[in-house]
Amino acid sequence: MSAPILWIAIPFIAGILIFLISSERFSATAGGAISAILALIALFIPIDVALLLGTISIKISPAIQFFGRSFELNTADGFLLAIIYGLASLWFFGTEASATQSRFVSFGLMIVALLTASIAVEPFLYAALLLEVATMLVIPLLVPPYQKPAQGVVRFLTYQTLAMPFILFSGWMLTGVEASPSDLSTTLQAGVMLGLGFAFLFAVFPLYNWIPMMMEETPPYATGFLLWALPTFTTIFALGFLDRYTWLRNSTQLMSAIQFAGLFMVASGGLFAALQRHFGRILAYAAIAQTGLILLIFGLQTTQMVNLVFLTLIPRGLELAIWALALSILKREAFSLQFSDLQGVARKYPVATASLVFAHLSIAGFPLLAGFPSRLSIWQSLTNDLSILFWIFVGMFGLLIAAFRTLAVFVMTDESGWKLNESWVQVTMLAVGVSGLFILGLFPQILQSLLINAPTLFEHLSQ
Amino acid sequence: MLILISCLLFFLTSLILVGLRIFRPEARYTWLVAVGGAMLGFVSVFLWLVQLPLNIALPGIPTLDAFNSSLIFTADGISFPFALSIAALTLSILLTAVTQPVYVNTSVWAGTLALGGAGILAVTSNNPLTLLLLWAALDLTELIIHLSSVDGASNNEKVVISFSTRAFGIGFLLWGSMTSIAEANTFEFQSMSASAGIFLVIASGLRLGVLPLHLPYAPESNLRRGFGTALRLISAASSLILLGRIPVGILTSSLTPILISLTLIAAIYAGWTWLRAPDELNGRPHWVIGIASLAILSALSGNPIGAVAWGCALILVGGTLFLASAQNIRLNRIMLLGVLGISALPFSLTASAWLGNLSFFIPFAIIAQALLMAGFIRHTLRSTNRDTLDNQPAWMQAVYPSGIILLILIQFLLGFIGWDGAMQIGAWLQAIIASLLTFGLVWASRRFRIFNPVRAHWVSTTESRLNNLYQGLWSLYRFFGRVSQIVTKTLEGEGGIMWTLLFLVLFVALITQAAS
């Protein structure tokens, strides 16, 4: 068995099969179980290392050829696959609790498989094409059959599609830069092309307006999944670029631009979140601020960059999953996520509202919760420039205000007494998720043991 | 290790009580278990004296830089009096709970003990990371308890506002710590930089409702006497310990006089409302703000030990009054001795309170102190709403007062032993002036209408001018909301893509220009 078949082909085929079966409960369990098994295999069975089980020798070979292209997953990718499929299983198990359509799991699995292919493909520029295919698969995930796609979805597709030619074109130019690094004009052009491509992919300011639009128009759980999956793989793709091209890493101008873009996203995302009156839009701006934090880490130019990125990405998956699940539960009650429609809902849905608030606080970097350790590390790394740190604090302050407004809306009611209207599946999923937030917040050492191999994945960035 | 043993005793007893509540709900010895655990915890804190200073470091959050991010707990001349006060308050709450039914109150007693343990951990924390984690834990606990026990939209909103101001206090502590790392390359209290010190004072002031003056305390729930007192006073103590940890001499910023002025306003205002409060429980938030303001004044005057003294007085003297739920003339007279604890007279608990340099601000500080003392005397002597112990068995009649007297005894004891502020003569002249002024206020309060207690429902709405300020802030917020709507509509509307691309070009032009 080869690694690409195991972590790309099998989940992709499973996604197709689940789509054909179309049973809500079965699809959630099957998708969650398949992802969990793949995560466990990635965690415990190293790639390209022979394991003896009695007289049987098992070895997962690292590469496969497909239409002249190579798909390669090495030993170092094991932890990455474990994280990706572990978090994906959480999303898929939550499908039933969120009452999202069964095709979420099938398309979700296919998207994750394609995105995994994007980090395995060689030449790695083909990743842009795979990201584009994954983007197109998002459309049926978000838009019900025979319905016109909402404006946010169209804009999402437009921007993500615009990213592809920029990335491919910059890739072609980069080979020229590698050949003659002294040619400054080619370098600058390649840098701008690459920057624009990633600006579309990461949805930097002002290209992020599709995110709040989509959170308002489409099912929150599916959109939440999208907000987790795409930036995660785009981050890994971007790390690959930085690791491969020395001049990119050493370009102080580019790094400053990345840092500036990230800072703008953190500050504007936080401030806009504080001013919203729609719970879905608040999630959108929080996700934008988080992506901004990742860009800021890119700009830090520290050997700890890879560790910091993953220390931010892993809690992000958990936070967004809890937040999106809680929003789905509340949307079923009120059919809207406007403040006015959900006022006082905490008395009817205490677990969903509490989980939402904890996930929000975690993204804002509140102590004790999963987001805090990574924020603390980022803040400490930025103490040499207090003005940057100040704007990060402004962004986090905005997110905190949004969290307090959310909490106030949820609890402001003249009703007395509490009722538990969530199902046991919903309560269990949310309770597990919130426990995870506290465990990762109190014992981040758990993540550190997982991240021990992270630097080997991007060797140049960790030197 | 002794620090952890003390805290574990409180936590373990709390767990045992929860177990008894579930498996033996009718057990009649529950109160004895609670008091036994609290007693052991109290004695164990006393034992710290043998080995002071004590240090313990636990593995904390492994950050990626070289800064020490261990959780450090220290028992020293600053944290010991706080820890002893909290342990005494916890024991006192349980001793005075002797008259209450067992089944209903087992979980409340368990909560009180757990809170005592957490409070001791908070006051012994000796670096910003440890403190902010414990602040967050206490704040979340308080939020959940209050939200589950208050009714009404307005009350629930106040609970959230209370939580949010405390969270912003955590933010200021974090910012102060980052400033300190930037300037002095340290993440410890002992070597904080000067500019960081001011942020620590603001963090503490914000959490206590002093800077700017506001009521950070959620409306009182039905758990007013015992657990409510523990929650309120321990939470305040956990914020005040920060003032004790600020190194001497670093608060000499240009902001200091402004902060002193604001704090004095808060102190005098809180003292006045405390004096005129209808009863001690309604006035409790003002008591906390008043004493906390005096603690902040001490810290700002370069006297962190004074802040510790006021912090202990907040718990011990306040606790005496807030826990007294039964009518007993002799006990009331003994309780009056509590006023010595906030008098700043030589060898009293607060003897070290005014050793700093407040220069021309000192008369105002004395007025605030006198108002608080007069209010204390007034509320001690007004005992109309209290129950009577006459129908209780003799042993209960003996145990109940011992809870109150314990707090007074500890208050006297701390005047003499165990910490850096013990055995101090202090600023005796100021203390005498404050005492004379107090007697004058007590005398006047019985003769002039202006001193009459305000009705209960007025207490929380008297800050009309402050409300105007907050209304102004709210208008500003709505203005920004409208601006954000315009931006959002522009970018998300029909011509959004064009606008976005235009912004993108501008953005790229800006960045390339900056880069060149």
Task: Please outline the helices and strands.
The complex is a heterodimer of chains A (about 475) and B (about 525).
Chain A: H1 3-21, H2 24-44, E1 51-53, E2 56-58, E3 63-66, E4 69-72, H3 78-98, H4 103-120, E5 121-122, H5 127-142, H6 151-179, H7 184-202, H8 210-217, H9 220-244, H10 246-250, H11 252-274, H12 279-298, H13 305-334, H14 350-363, H15 371-381, H16 386-411, H17 424-442, H18 445-450, H19 454-457
Antiparallel strand pairs in A: 1-2, 3-4, 4-5
Chain B: H1 2-23, H2 30-51, E1 54-58, E2 71-75, H3 79-96, H4 102-124, H5 128-149, H6 153-184, H7 194-208, H8 226-245, H9 256-275, H10 280-300, H11 304-323, E3 326-327, H12 329-336, H13 362-381, E4 387-388, H14 394-413, H15 428-445, H16 464-492, H17 496-515
Helix pairs in contact in B: 1-2, 1-4, 2-3, 2-4, 3-4, 3-8, 3-11, 3-14, 4-5, 4-8, 5-6, 5-8, 6-7, 7-8, 7-10, 8-10, 8-11, 9-10, 9-13, 10-11, 10-13, 11-14, 12-13, 13-15, 16-17
Give a brief description.
The complex is a heterodimer of chains A (463) and B (516). Chain A is mainly α. Chain A has helices at residues 3-21, 24-44, 78-98, 103-120, 127-142, 151-179, 184-202, 210-217, 220-244, 246-250, 252-274, 279-298, 305-334, 350-363, 371-381, 386-411, 424-442, 445-450, 454-457; strands spanning 51-53, 56-58, 63-66, 69-72, 121-122.
Could you explain how this protein is built, in words?
The complex is a heterodimer of chains A (463) and B (516). Chain A is mainly alpha-helical and 463 residues long. Chain A folds into two domains: 1-122, no CATH class; 204-457, no CATH class. Chain A has helices at 3-21, 24-44, 78-98, 103-120, 127-142, 151-179, 184-202, 210-217, 220-244, 246-250, 252-274, 279-298, 305-334, 350-363, 371-381, 386-411, 424-442, 445-450, 454-457; strands at 51-53, 56-58, 63-66, 69-72, 121-122. In chain A, the strands form two sheets. Chain A has a three-stranded antiparallel beta sheet with strand order 3-4-5. A two-stranded antiparallel sheet of chain A has the order 1-2. In chain A, strand 3 and strand 4 form a beta hairpin. The longest helix of chain A has 30 residues, at 305-334. The mean pLDDT of chain A is 87. Chain B has a two-stranded antiparallel sheet. Chain B folds into two domains: 2-462, no CATH class; 485-515, no CATH class. In chain B, helix 4 runs parallel beside helix 8 and helix 16 (464-492) packs across helix 17 (496-515). Chain B is globular. Chain B is mainly α. At the A-B interface, helix 6, helix 7, helix 11, helix 13 and helix 15 of A face helix 5, helix 6, helix 16 and helix 17 of B.
